[in-house]
Amino acid sequence: MAGDPLAIAGLSLLVSATSTLLSACIAVPLGVALGLREVGSQRLLRNLVFTLYGLPPVLAGLLVFLLLSRDGPLGSLRLLYTPLGMVLAQVVVVAPIMLGITMSVVATVERRVKETALVLGADRRQLSMTVLREAYAGIVTAVMVGFGRAISEVGAVFIVGGHIEGNTQVLTTTIITDIRQAEYAHAMLIGVILLVIAATVYSFLYRLQERAMP
Amino acid sequence: MHFSLPRRWLAALVAAVVVLLSVGAYLSLPRAYLLMATTTSTQDTGLLSYLLPEFSRDSGVEVRYTAVGTGQALDAGRRGDVDVVMVHSPPLEQAFMDSGKGLCRNQLMYNRFVLVGPRSDPAGVSGATSIVDALGQIWNASARFASRADNSGTHNKELVLWASAGLTVSTFGAWYEKTGQGMGETLAIANQRDAYTLSDDGTWYSLEARLPFLVLAYGGDEPVLRNVYSVIPVNPANHTGILVDGAVAFARWLVAPRAQALIAAFSVNGRIIFTPDPIGAC
To answer: B215 in a domain, yes or no?
Structure first.
């Protein structure tokens, strides 16, 4: 099965961008909050975040699939095998990664800046603002890494999206089904598109980091 | 003492590398078993795990297989990655034979294609007089239809059936959904999305209990709905290392009376699936 490469790439970008932004809305504020405050009771929460950080995408796919399936708890929404369902699956994969990176970055910067800032007479609010300014590049990195993960992820979107041509067919799932049908040339073309998207994202990321860390 | 720790680590590392290399080398030894590429339906119905041990008992040859789409199975044969293929798409098989990639072709058996669909039967297919009539009603109603669209034997049959109904798939609207996947996945999608789909009866009967929103919509006995399976040993002229003797023995064994009797007795959830129809050419 072929399928229009541009339409497939378009849907891939749409789904991954949506899930990335949605994940950022959840993960960045939460990550900043968790990173700024060093409280003992948050240890458990942090451990949980880092466990989810390693959540295998196929497992995330299975969980979201069961959740959205017709006889599942959210079955009446009829979101299985729709782009929106795929967004949800990717959020489950991507948000913990963004959350984990944001948390680490903010905590590291906070430890580095804290003493100097307090010695210079900063109050708690000013300290937080300084930390955020310093951690900015790291937080953007977290978001970009999340996007890179989302666009290259295959297990969850295959299970939840179902790879229906012109509907939920994305770049990664197309490569899998192309190989099944021995359509190696088409698979390669799709692979190159995927590579170009990933390279663009990561070159942007590299430039950003270079500027932020002299 | 100062060097003992790193040295011990180095020894452990070397030992690990040696062990891994030996395992890799052992696994890469010339294989004694026959390798077959086949379609998912022969695996999903349980036919292979029923037949292959019997062949091994009779011949002393072990058969291992990879279950893929017909397109990929034939391509594996074309590349010489396997010794024998077992598929069910006569037009694709003919092209495979014509290109000299297959040694010979033994027809084994057939099962039937059935049309399954949502319980509510929105296209009113249950009163259809033929499969062509049923597909025409689905088209009339623009009722959702899930197509394998994966160049499999079932997909090719589906295209032939649409064509004999005088309909052109490329003009269909959004109700015609292409999954690009195997029978089990496509049935699962049809179950979730209230779609009709064409399935082989073996896969349908083996999965029926897990597809609560689907029912058998049309299951006629016309010859056009026959799904004919064949086995083709790969032509050793094109590649080295093909176990041609075992492949031919396997193809012959399958059309002999004993295997045919086994096939005739094979049932899925209490239903006989395959009708023996041997034509031996190997």
So the answer is: yes
